[in-house]
Amino acid sequence: MGNVTENSSLSCPIDHTIHQTLAPVVYVAVLVVGFPANCLSLYFGYLQIKARNELGVYLCNLTVADLFYICSLPFWLQYVLQHDNWSHGDLSCQLCGILLYENIYISVGFLCCISIDRYLAVAHPFRFHQFRTLKAAVGVSALIWAKELLTSVYFLRHQEVVEDDKRHRVCFEHYPLEPWQRGINYYRFLVGFLFPLCLLLASYRGILRAVRRSHGTQKSRKDQIQRLVFSTVVIFLACFLPYHTLLLVRSLWEASCQFARAVFNAYHFALLLTSFNCVADPVLYCFVSESTHRDLGRLRGACLALLACARTGRAREAYPSGTPDASGKSDEPELLTRLHSTFQTPNSPGAGGTPAGGLA
């Protein structure tokens, strides 16, 4: 059996078994996969900003938010492995809780920005240029961060560490919900989730309509865009819909300890699902784009060329005069040419590629 918590305002024993069984598995998986994937995503976002692509700004902000959340996971992992006993200070509990919960709405906000920007690029490619600039993207990003940071102040005003009957310090857990939590939960559901979801669905509906009406787009390209749109919506709903549905259910009807116990496992399972968004984000908005495929190809080519240089260096140590081929010529000039070409950026003179474009 898991440990039992008792709210300071109302005795409410809760079985926390899910925290000691499923939560560590999810946290470790997200750490192992999400951290390197988001680091790579941050690099590709930088390349897009360098190519004057405003989507790179949204991608980098989305990735930074995910990395902040991932950095808080070791603390939560320690917390659940110690049977829900927060061994750090009260402020660290509040900060880690803010990173855990506010990351959801920062991610939703930037996913919404990406979908709207993509809609404007596909459906109205020659209009709204003032909204599709680096300056505009930086301004919108600053507004999203400011909105969520102001919301976070609300949590800093309340005590989030509660000591149970076993003298365990539980963090960010109140059962049943306290009155002040209901109002902020309604705000989260309506403004943080439902409104962005409507914008995202409307944007992707417009994208699909524009793609289907386009006669100049190849069928393979249309299929790729449609698959990406479908995957984005499915992953968005899978990661965020269960949690917000149960958040609304708790806010509307949780008034007793019995109800809190009944929904505890489902609610925390849904909360764990939101963690997988940190893994899905770089896959959807980085690894499926054509520009990222080119960047991955150049990165792979550069690594292979460096390995080839290392092998050639060892061969030259063994054969100082060089390794001639069948015609008696050394392969060094060809190798240097290949190495130079792999490091060329899309905007470099002589490069055959185009600047990093949209993510769709």
TrEMBL record:
Q: Polar residues: which segments have biased composition?
A: 339-348
| Keywords recorded for this protein, A-Z | Cell membrane, Disulfide bond, G-protein coupled receptor, Glycoprotein, Membrane, Receptor, Transducer, Transmembrane, Transmembrane helix
Compositionally biased intervals (Gly residues): 350-360
Tell me the segments the record calls region Disordered. Answer: 339-360
Q: Which GO CC annotations does the UniProt entry carry?
A: plasma membrane
The membrane topology term of the UniProt record is: Multi-pass membrane protein
Q: Which residues form the G-protein coupled receptors family 1 profile domain?
A: 37-285
What family, per the record? Belongs to the G-protein coupled receptor 1 family.
Q: What is this protein called?
A: G protein-coupled receptor 68
Give the organism, scientific name: Panthera leo
